[in-house]
Amino acid sequence: xxxxxxxxxxxxxxxxxxxxxxxxxxxxxxxxxxxxxxxxxxxxxxxxxxxxxxxxxxxxxxxxxxxxxxxxxxxxxxxxxxxxxxxxxxxxxxxxxxxxxxxxxxxxxxxxxxxxxxxxxxxxxxxxxxxxxxxxxxxxxxxxxxxxxxxxxxxxxxxxxxxxxxxxxxxxxxxxxxxxxxxxxxxxxxxxxxxxxxxxxxxxxxxxxxxxxxxxxx
Length: 218
Hints:
Layout: H1 7-25, H2 31-39, H3 41-53, H4 57-72, H5 93-96, H6 106-109, H7 114-134, H8 146-151, H9 156-177, H10 181-190, H11 194-217
Helix pairs in contact: 2-7, 10-11
């Protein structure tokens, strides 16, 4: 382990990457979400073109109201005020539209541009390649190394099946938790979001329990 960075240097590097990504893109850093969007780039590019037509929430609300009026034949002069259930009072007009500073901008709620997330993934790949090549530890292999063979299975077919199932579970867990360890652990916890703090605690707590089970029990 002496050839690796010390823990404090890695922590500083991750912090700088996260801060720079947030300042440049005004979005949270997330690797799994970026990978999913890049794989479905045609769908994501279509969504981006649709988003470009409506740069704010007000324009989107007006377009939806006009489309609804046209579809249901209520005419363009129909009221766009939402209907209030019977027995409830109509809210004041001043309370219907919150101030601009009380809600986040529409652009900050949208994911980072597709090209930005593709550049993030390419940077991770190139950075790992450069680090391995300059340290003299780069070589191609078709298994997970002797540690995986000794701990899990030496059979190549079983190894591929286990890795495939593990990858599916990671993807499912990422969708279920609304983010991966980088999104919650780095960006979310850095912004003190309660959901990210809880998710990160579950991530690492489960990892510690599984590691203890594998190394001490099995």
